[in-house]
Amino acid sequence: MHIKVVLRQLGLNERHAAIYLACLELGSASVQKISEKSGLARSTCEFALKSLVEKGFVTSFKKKNVKNFSPEDPKKLVSLAKERVKLLEEALPQFTVRYFKGGSLPMVRLYQSEIGVKNILQEILDEATELVSLGSIDDIYAVLGHFFPKFTAERVKRKIRLRTILRRSVLAEKRQETGAQELREVRIISEEYDVTSVTFIWNNKVAMCSLRDGVVAFVIESKELATIQKTMFELIWNTLGGTKLSVENNG
């Protein structure tokens, strides 16, 4: 992962990241030198450095009456991240109290990025005791090929059993063959069905992910809707009975 992407994940915007990297290369330096190194205006650097000091990325001191800045050891970034996680964990009960779960309307969350889908998969790992899904494994791997095997390994580690209905492909048939060792039972529908997305159902939640022409995914939290989706899944699952379902067989 590119270092600037990592810094953005830690809460730095593009200018802050550029200035922090300039500080790393310069060591202790004045605002003027940091400005020259980063290619940003002095006024921009002054404002950003103040923010970086507050965030704990750099420290400031005076040398011959000139204010200088030094970057914190990069190893300290790990400590800073851990401190933020600890603060979030301590505040989690307060967030949970405010998190809407009741009422007659289902809760819906929308994601429009690969990171959003990864968050959904992590949510499944954290909550599910069993999981059912329907979709195209080829489209999943086209978008999450570098991540999905890790999800599968962690799912197996947590002993979360999966029943999945997949659109027929070489990859789908391979997953059917290796299903037993990965706590997975696979039934296959014909490639004639134009299934290019994937649906996950667990507990009282349904996640639907569209993976072509840009990533769009949403999670619905509703006992009623999850039950309906699970019932539809079971109807298809029982119809398949371990064999391929074709368009003709479906009427």
TrEMBL record:
The segment(s) forming the Transcription regulator TrmB N-terminal domain are 7-74
Signal sequence interval, chain numbering: none
Positions in coiled-coil regions: none
- Cited PANTHER family: HTH-TYPE TRANSCRIPTIONAL REGULATOR TRMBL2
Q: This protein is called what?
A: Transcription regulator TrmB N-terminal domain-containing protein
Q: Which organism is it from?
A: Candidatus Taylorbacteria bacterium RIFCSPLOWO2_12_FULL_43_20
